[in-house]
Amino acid sequence: METATHPAKIYWRNCAALMLLLALTCIIGYINLGMFNVIIALAIAIIKATLVALFFMHIKGSSRLLHLAMTVGLIWLLIMLSFTLTDYFTRGWVPLNH
Amino acid sequence: MNTTSNMSVGFVAEQFDDFQQQRGAAQFGMWIFLATEVLFFGGLFLAYTVFRSLYPGDFVAASHHTVVAIGGINTAILLFSSTLMALAVRAAELRNQKQLIRLLVGTAFFGIIFMILKGVEYYKDWNDHLVPVLNFEWHQPNPGHAQIFFWLYFAMTGLHAIHVTVGICIMLVFAVIARTGKFTSGHFTPIEIAGLYWHFVDIVWIFLFPLLYLAGHR
Lengths: 98, 218
Hints:
Order of helices and strands of chain B: HHHHHH
Oligomer: heterodimer
Distance between the termini of chain B: 64 Å
Number of helices of chain B: 6
């Protein structure tokens, strides 16, 4: 039984990248960019979550079965979000021109 | 059944051929559990998206009452504790018992700091009359819409806080068990699985921070 252990450097580098992204999202959060604030904030959050999943949760280099389990989880989430939101946004319940 | 040639036979249950198969099953099971957790939190994120689309101005005004400093520091704390957790899994793999215990306690410690800061913020929210139903007062337009924001704020951060509390307990219990050398004789899978849970909780907060805190501070 042998395991390929990752060097500790990878985790510290990932930590530094996450902290930089946190600082970036805080700074951008205080600049008024209208509707782009939430888009940029979510984009940075998605990058941070990806970094955590890739390096801390070892999605990078793990088996295809785990890739599948993760992808299926995200697809279920997207189905729930997209089907519900299409319903709300096409019945005139949500005014889209604010 | 493969027995004597298998170094790890002591902790490989009899339904598995070897350590790697048992480890793979545990990882797969955990990722399936995390998929259900994504949907569990996803429902709240969906509600947030719908109501923020309905009342964008009121949500921004309500979010202005959250404390970005506490939310931001708590984000950094969770990111740092996740780093310690990743290093704890590494220490278990390398069979370094002392380091594993230290890192598990460190992970739990920063989790506790997170909870204390969250408690301080909840206390401030209470004094600012932001708790729906119990003491909600709103002197700006549309108090009902602002109250929906705070319903979601308490539901999302509260559910997340429960997860952090469970995580802290897991880390401390594992730190105690690690003293017996159980996880540093090759059987590091429980630490790895606990790590997946802790990182997931971290990811949830990564999304909560911009949506609940940063939204109102531009």
